[in-house]
Amino acid sequence: MIEMSLAEVAEVVGGVAHGTATVTGAAFVDTRTPETGGLFVALAGERVDGHDFASAAGDAGAVAVLGSRPTELPTVVVDDVTAALGRLARHVVSRLPDVVVLAMTGSQGKTGTKDYLAHVLSEAGPTVATRGNFNNELGVPLTVLRATPETRYLVVEMGARGVGHIADLCRIAPPHVAAVLNVGTAHIGEFGDREAIARAKGEIVEALAADGTAVLNADDDLVAAMAARTSATVTTFGDGSAGHPPDVSVSEVTTDEIGRQSFELAHRGSYATVHLAQVGAFQWRNAAAAAAMALAAGLDLDTVADSLADAGPASRWRMELTERADGLVVVNDAYNANPESMRAALETLAGIGSRSGRRTVAVLGEMRELGDEAAAAHHGVGAYAADVGVDVLVAVGPAAAAIADGFREGSGAGGTGRVTIPTAGRGEAADWLRHNVSAADVVLVKASRGAALELIADDLLTRGGNEGSTTR
């Protein structure tokens, strides 16, 4: 964060300073992840009141607090802490006129694309990017407040739970380059339909100035149509499968034994071959979106292609492939899930199985926030697992029962040889896996965040087979 006195912070956010201090570090909300010289943001929730942790934040390195009442540390007191945090972040952006803000949204792939983009841009200059999926009204300003006068690129992931949310986030961090990756069914329970999701996602390109660049997925009709919602330059990406020739195009996609993809990347008559190090049937699309954004920021195609090849996983539990010492392969994609990302992960699992000759085991849990579509969506994921030839389906918890039903009723290549294992929860699922998978298998673990299925992956890697594992 840029250096600011407590009095300056108070003036910017419209608060009252109690005490004196100079803030030199970033803002943070969790005392387990402190920032030396930073500003502790004290939020009062239903169960936990951040003000009670002000002293611990000071011990961890904070010099001041932003809160709704005075604390043991020098404190700026405001009526609405979240709104004040946003105002502070907007002020910091205005004090960094040379920083290029690149923002992205989409129903899936935001974090993977963000990680690729941050890696590529870091080759060209100091880069600050969203950590994890800090993409809401707290996460976006916390990301912005990590920027310093040395920062050249600011990469911001933006999520939405309703119409108007992304517009608000863009007021905090006005983008120079803004991308919409796709419009899927994640959070459809809150929006109602994909068209409503598209209206909300498209706010990110409406926020662009005329000299900005909108980066749109040419293969998603709802996204491609957003070109009409901006006065900025439009750059598209994709493989042209929807019949719209993209500006940044991908062709000749191939996949190796463990699911790493290679492809040809083209832009304005130039071509480069990209060999990705990360696993996943959707990685080429994340990489293409990141490439289009980096090119819009002024990087050249060869630099982008070389940097994409170097990019390793930057966020945990997203297609994290680990080989146990005895040879068992575990793909931990347990960070989150929706129908589209489930299908992509299952396609990856089936591909690894077919190329390596391994038995495929999908450990799947609940997908949340799907509203009235939940039962059909879960059933469809199970049917898709059967369609792509998954051998074993372990359904974790009652909410995943419809996945098991879809798998049993599916008509995929596995046929009558498919095995369905319904379980009551994580413990029962982990116990079955511990006794029934071996070096000849590849196991995918995936569900929405609240299901915490990464614990099953951890159990497989630490308690089963021989000790030791290698992450690729």
Automatic annotation (TrEMBL):
InterPro entries referenced in this protein's UniProt entry, alphabetically: Mur-like_cat_sf, Mur_ligase_C, Mur_ligase_C_dom_sf, Mur_ligase_cen, Mur_ligase_N, MurCDEF_CellWall_CoF430Synth, MurE/MurF_N, UDP-N-AcMur_synth
Domain Mur ligase central: 105-294
Reactions catalysed according to its record: D-alanyl-D-alanine + UDP-N-acetyl-alpha-D-muramoyl-L-alanyl-gamma-D-glutamyl-meso-2,6-diaminopimelate + ATP = UDP-N-acetyl-alpha-D-muramoyl-L-alanyl-gamma-D-glutamyl-meso-2,6-diaminopimeloyl-D-alanyl-D-alanine + ADP + phosphate + H(+)
Sections of the chain in a coiled coil: none
Pathway: Cell wall biogenesis; peptidoglycan biosynthesis
Keyword Ligase recorded: yes
Alphabetically ordered keywords of this record: ATP-binding, Cell cycle, Cell division, Cell shape, Cell wall biogenesis/degradation, Cytoplasm, Ligase, Nucleotide-binding, Peptidoglycan synthesis
EC number of this enzyme: 6.3.2.10
One Pfam family named in its UniProt record: Mur_ligase_M
Mur ligase N-terminal catalytic domain residues: 35-79
Taxonomic superkingdom: Bacteria
Any GO molecular function: UDP-N-acetylmuramoyl-tripeptide-D-alanyl-D-alanine ligase activity
Principal cellular location given in the protein's record: cytoplasm
HAMAP family in the cross-refs: MurF (MF_02019)
Family to which this protein belongs: Belongs to the MurCDEF family. MurF subfamily.
Protein name: UDP-N-acetylmuramoyl-tripeptide--D-alanyl-D-alanine ligase
Organism: Nocardioides eburneiflavus
